[in-house]
Amino acid sequence: MNRAGETGAADDSGVGNTSLVQDAVLAFDIGGTDMKAGIVLGGLGGEGGLGGEVGLGGEVEVRDLQRHPTPLDGERSGASVCARIVELTGQYRSAHPELKISAVGVTVPGIVDEENGIGVFSANLGWKNFPFTATLTQALGLPVGFGHDVGMAGEAEFRLGAAVGKTDVLVMVIGTGIAGAVVCDGKRIAGGGYAGEIGHAMVPSPDGGMAIMESLGSAGAVARRYTAATGTPVAGARDVLALAAEGDLAAKTVWADAIDALAFSVAQCVSILGTETVVLGGGLSMAGAALFEPLAARVDELLTFHRRPHYVHAALGENAGLIGSALKARSLHAASAEEGTA
Amino acid sequence: MNRAGETGAADDSGVGNTSLVQDAVLAFDIGGTDMKAGIVLGGLGGEGGLGGEVGLGGEVEVRDLQRHPTPLDGERSGASVCARIVELTGQYRSAHPELKISAVGVTVPGIVDEENGIGVFSANLGWKNFPFTATLTQALGLPVGFGHDVGMAGEAEFRLGAAVGKTDVLVMVIGTGIAGAVVCDGKRIAGGGYAGEIGHAMVPSPDGGMAIMESLGSAGAVARRYTAATGTPVAGARDVLALAAEGDLAAKTVWADAIDALAFSVAQCVSILGTETVVLGGGLSMAGAALFEPLAARVDELLTFHRRPHYVHAALGENAGLIGSALKARSLHAASAEEGTA
């Protein structure tokens, strides 16, 4: 009776030979120059996943992070990228016999139809309506979590990072350009792949006209505008900030213009969506208090009876996109496993 | 056998004595001066309702529409309004023995916590954190569909009106002021009660600074700004439009400023949310092509690779709010009936 009981317990737990092999997701973040790859472990909670409720627990770990050149091939870049993903998946499998790669996550830039797994358009990478999910699912025989790079990073910050438990969130990644992810009432907005393009929204410009937001507020714009104003080349926005701290007037003006542009867009989100949490990521967010404090003050001036948002630093760093696509891939894997047992 | 068959059929259809009494929702739209009441019939499809999927069918009818002064009582206005709703519900019941009022819908202006049924704040009506749903549910013993007036109107346009089948929608009601409702990925956004305040978002103003959007784009602003510019009093925005059509330069400028302000806000929504459909309601929307055509053209200038939205006239007229709250009330009634039979 005792032995039968033990056997039953072992069966119920599902523990067998496979217990030595850990389930993992291999994630890819496709950029205009490089593609990153890495194994994402942990942080994925039990069931639920992206389709379910907020609050997946556990520490997340990215293992064996690699960078490779993105195979650029004009309009055929989609197929080339997929072929490279298949090749790298084989290499990761050989290199990590201790892991069972049970799903793949992929993020791409541009306009992305996440629902149908299609890269609609990318100016830098060249594809038009390329079916990433279908191509990779067929080639790999695995569930594929496919999404927009900043969208997936935002999703990761919302599920595991700086905005856990918040329902109305704007994630802004401020680097060379500016991209955003928008969470409303506890769900990230897709808008058919067109949501989150806050860097390309109009804002009032210092000359009294209008400008694209990222032409004033991005790290790239801060450096470029300082050089244009003074003729002095700088390595990046960090130098401009240092000069502003020393009292350089041109640097202070360029920085104030950037804050005005960012604040204007934040205030639009608050007015239209009731945004309560602003997550700032990307290179410019490293400015810390020099960014957060004047930004909050300027947003405040642009609002009346509205909510006042909280500002937090992105928590998951530059691997947020990998983690987000892995979360999505894992939830698809869990769903297909459930179907399999049903 | 024939008779038994007939009896069975009658039982299955659920037709009995109650079939002579039609289920109806009594809806109230509470404004700063008047409160509207009306019986909402039809248009409510089968199950589903507000919580379910898009696509409720059938013609909607508002019967015995009444207007009464809103009982204004400072901070106690919430209680006074509820008392009046209870009183009017009794009157409607007496006057309509052919109807069974099975649920009540209520819309209010201001900041509204729909999830918890609370009127958070209304500048015109005076309440602060008044528990409308709890108060009315207790007093009436009926399910109460409670919501923001423009939010419920937007919901009705999305479910039954101008935006049926669309997933990314901005509803703008342009009257004395401007309020909005935002639908993203097929769900209206609440933002804790703070979403949709597009009339209070900042836009670039003609003097090179910034202004609250409704101070330039509303019907009230158009009339007021024309009079301020010319010293000539006008009855409303309609007069200004007529003057613009005749070539009056000040009227043309004021109208162009209004278009610029409205277009700026529409373009913000498109950039941030991928809005595909813009529903225009309220008095100013009666301007028709004089509004729609320059608005679409101006929005187009403010966008680059973004979606281009379609513009449609609100379909449900000034009773959209009543209809929206009735839809919500009906879905709550259906849900509670289902619980009762489970």
What does this structure look like?
The structure is a homodimer of 342-residue chains. Chain A starts with a helix and ends with a helix. In chain A, the strands form 4 sheets. In chain A, strands 3-2-1-4-8 form a 5-stranded mixed β-sheet. Chain A is α/β, with parallel strands linked by helices and 342 residues long. Residues 1-18 and 46-56 of chain A have low confidence and may be disordered. Chain A has 10 helices and 15 strands. Chain A binds chain B through residues 111, 121, 123, 167-168, 180, 182, 184-185, 187, 189-198, 200-202, 204, 208-210, 212, 264, 267-276, 302, 304-307, and chain B through 111, 121, 123, 167-168, 180, 182, 184-185, 187, 189-198, 200-202, 204, 208-210, 212, 264, 267-276, 302, 304-307.
Strand content of chain A: 15-25%
Distance between the termini of chain A: 30 Å
> Strand order across the biggest sheet of chain A?
3-2-1-4-8
What structural category do the secondary elements of chain A indicate? alpha/beta
Number of beta strands of chain A: 15
CATH top level label of the largest domain in chain A: Alpha Beta
Number of domains of chain A: 2
Give the topology, please.
The structure is a homodimer of 342-residue chains.
Chain A: H1 2-13, E1 22-30, E2 34-42, E3 60-69, H2 77-95, E4 99-108, E5 111-113, E6 118-121, E7 128-131, H3 132-140, E8 144-148, H4 149-159, E9 169-174, E10 178-184, E11 187-188, E12 202-204, E13 210-212, H5 214-217, H6 219-230, H7 237-245, H8 249-273, E14 277-281, H9 289-302, E15 310-313, H10 320-341
Parallel strand pairs in A: 1-4, 4-8, 9-14, 14-15
Antiparallel strand pairs in A: 1-2, 2-3, 5-6, 6-7, 9-10, 10-11, 12-13
InterPro entries (chains A, B): ATPase_NBD, ROK
Protein name (chains A, B): Sugar kinase
Pfam family, one (chains A, B): ROK
